[in-house]
Amino acid sequence: MDDLIIGEHKLSSRLIIGTGGAANLEVLERALVASGTQLTTVAMRRADAEGGSGVLELLRRLDIELLPNTAGCRTAAEAVLTAQLAREALETNLIKLEVHADDRTLLPDPLETLEAAERLVADGFTVFAYTNDDPVLALRLEEAGCAAVMPLGAPIGTGLGIRNPHNIELIVSRASVPIVLDAGIGTASDATLAMELGCSAVLLSTAVTRAADPERMALAMRSAVEAGYLARGAGRVPQRFWAQASSPPR
Amino acid sequence: MDDLIIGEHKLSSRLIIGTGGAANLEVLERALVASGTQLTTVAMRRADAEGGSGVLELLRRLDIELLPNTAGCRTAAEAVLTAQLAREALETNLIKLEVHADDRTLLPDPLETLEAAERLVADGFTVFAYTNDDPVLALRLEEAGCAAVMPLGAPIGTGLGIRNPHNIELIVSRASVPIVLDAGIGTASDATLAMELGCSAVLLSTAVTRAADPERMALAMRSAVEAGYLARGAGRVPQRFWAQASSPPR
Amino acid sequence: MDDLIIGEHKLSSRLIIGTGGAANLEVLERALVASGTQLTTVAMRRADAEGGSGVLELLRRLDIELLPNTAGCRTAAEAVLTAQLAREALETNLIKLEVHADDRTLLPDPLETLEAAERLVADGFTVFAYTNDDPVLALRLEEAGCAAVMPLGAPIGTGLGIRNPHNIELIVSRASVPIVLDAGIGTASDATLAMELGCSAVLLSTAVTRAADPERMALAMRSAVEAGYLARGAGRVPQRFWAQASSPPR
Amino acid sequence: MDDLIIGEHKLSSRLIIGTGGAANLEVLERALVASGTQLTTVAMRRADAEGGSGVLELLRRLDIELLPNTAGCRTAAEAVLTAQLAREALETNLIKLEVHADDRTLLPDPLETLEAAERLVADGFTVFAYTNDDPVLALRLEEAGCAAVMPLGAPIGTGLGIRNPHNIELIVSRASVPIVLDAGIGTASDATLAMELGCSAVLLSTAVTRAADPERMALAMRSAVEAGYLARGAGRVPQRFWAQASSPPR
């Protein structure tokens, strides 16, 4: 795979992992190593299972870049403040912007997200913006200066995969920044499909951390992302209604 | 991945390739190597693009086991005769049984297939039976002594993927022999899904040989099969209607 | 809707109802009337909820033609015998042929079904053949002289709808006799889709009889079949990737 | 069907038609009559095929209520002005709010739509708001005082049906105002599904006006909406993995 460039960062892995949902630090470590990830997101306002600062030390030890996120924020103001605290504490200008509208859907609030994105870009952050799969909003977030736009496949934690591949294709076809499929991934074929649709990377958390065997699922996701990336570039065969023999009669 | 045992044969790759549709021998060689396949099927009655016996020499050189197939046969009698000629000429008791009902669908003829399977098993062949996705016929073929049952995802050459995952799940849930997804694969996520549904392996030809870049698509399929195999074993998260946060509020 | 001709029978309703699953005769009567059906199938070997001969009297009173079926039979011989007993007792040469392979899937046994069809046609029956959605077997049943071929949408009682629309389209595109979608219908849109795919009629039982409100669901199915029939003939608009304004700018 | 109440308006038909795309006034008239619609939307800024004021006279003659729309507007300001001109000219306070972000997708601009909705509600309009299928924005539009929220199934004119049924279900499950499926409908089963998902009505234009036979497709859509409405209320059977006989063995 080619390196993925987001802002000034270069990644050879196209799988971004979230730490939420892991049973403990040992499980998380094995999963992160298996995934091959080089970028991992941690909620600044949530108590991850592993608790305290252990997860930050773990990422440092594994030499995985930290992508702080603002999950749990409800307004632009909260998200901006959370991002600023994260930058100060963690010495990174990377921020995954998440502004959730409510607890039942955890869907992004489109207006607060856009407003926060504008303010964070103006404040010098490299913004990864979590968004719904609306092609209009995706373009607005790119125009606002986001380094990556991260449409969901389905609501967080549902494992429903990519509910609307057509929207992801529309987003990709008009984007100039990397599109990262974020949220909704349930299993490996979802990740493969995301890459085949043209996404530049996949972000997932509980699909790995809450699988029966997180380490093995992390390995699966690593291969799945690679498979989809390669397939996208290989130029698939067209779909046909009638059969076609693979070789003509002798 | 664990080794796949079919009859008396042991395979560490779960990707079986068909040679039909390759532009020439060089392209085919690169694709086969990239795929990591250890078992490749060649039509005894079809003129493969590469012509003549070149493909057989190629497989020998690459140390890939040959799985002759009876594509192009319309009756049990034709298929049995073709299999016997293949065994004699190629010194293998492996046979991929294909009895096509007609040229427009290339769908297997269920009655002729079952009859041919019974006769070939009685004649000492290790039979890989290409079949539709009917769970009843799949069980009959297993009972007839086939070493592997190979339901289609969609008609040959359509690239439509797995049209009926429910049937594949029904087949897998009752099978005691390996189920190999055969025909219909269009891109990597199709192969990943096949393995997630519980198939033991995937067989494909033109999805690789007719891709814009066959070598790259072969690499993609290799990763895709691995991803699906690992994900199946890793125990995916359940699907939910409402969202669920990956970590509880702090 | 045009009349539907099956064998020598003419039907103005394209909704065929099965009586199985009804809570009692009153519920069944209201559902049958609401459905507008003119042809209703009764299992000769099963104890319908309404018990005894009540259902036959009900059909007579409602002037609904009876289509006896062989549900519960496991072999061609059983099915032929059941059909002959039905003809004698009920004075109809109509028979819905069902040979179930096993209890968990209730899927039709393809070989026994085909053999029974041949024998019943030779014996003068007007045969409605319940079959899987295999386009090859559908054609064989037509060639055997069946008056109608009845592929399933999904296994009986699953309510999964039409699992493989592609197969139904393949069957319809090659058929010269009416294709009736049988089994798997769960709700109205499934019936509409069946007709849009080109089926001539829809047969369903528990989608109506086990709905919370069977009479209302019967009305829904009546409209659903009509909607799909009309839409098929109306020539739908093509699908597009990009939007298209309904009217040009002024 | 129960009457549908939107704002102060009562409708016995749950099919709202758009006039765009009709070949001429005669075709449009036959389609409108066949559809049974009582509410029809006309673009204030677009040249409908029928031209000039003919369509308005036609609606008056057929006693169909007019729902002016703001299609073609790009900003909240344009939409508000267009709505005000429509109110003055047509003596109706109904307005279908559409603010399209661009010509290729014709997707609604979420921010401009919400702003326009707030201003129109404050100005005394009964607002039908065309929106994407984002459950968060749908709730915001309801909170802004819209009388009906109209999520799309797919982009205008694509005929792709309902790309994301999960989102429509999420929207319906939290709504207190009628949800009207708007845009994307291609054929009858799409309309049936919309109603089964819990929508209160369906709005469509070119699925009827550009069908090969618009009058017949209008009839189909009328039945399709009725079917879906009835089925929703009838309480469908659950989906099962394994089969279930409709009646127990005798």
Could you characterize the architecture of this molecule?
Four copies of one chain form a homotetramer. Chain A has 250 residues and is of the alpha/beta class. Chain A has one domain: Aldolase class I (TIM Barrel), CATH 3.20.20.70. The first copy, chain A, has nine helices and ten strands. A five-stranded parallel β-sheet of chain A has the order 5-4-3-10-9. In chain A, helix 4 links the parallel strand 6 and strand 7. In chain A, helix 5 packs parallel to helix 6 and helix 7 runs parallel beside helix 9. Chain A is globular, with a radius of gyration of 18 Å. The N and C termini of chain A lie far apart (39 Å). The model of chain A has no long low-confidence stretch (mean pLDDT 93). At the A-B interface, helix 7, helix 8 and helix 9 of A face helix 7, helix 8 and helix 9 of B. Chains A, B, C, D: This is Thiazole synthase. Chains A, B, C, D: Catalyzes the rearrangement of 1-deoxy-D-xylulose 5-phosphate (DXP) to produce the thiazole phosphate moiety of thiamine. Sulfur is provided by the thiocarboxylate moiety of the carrier protein ThiS. In vitro, sulfur can be provided by H(2)S.
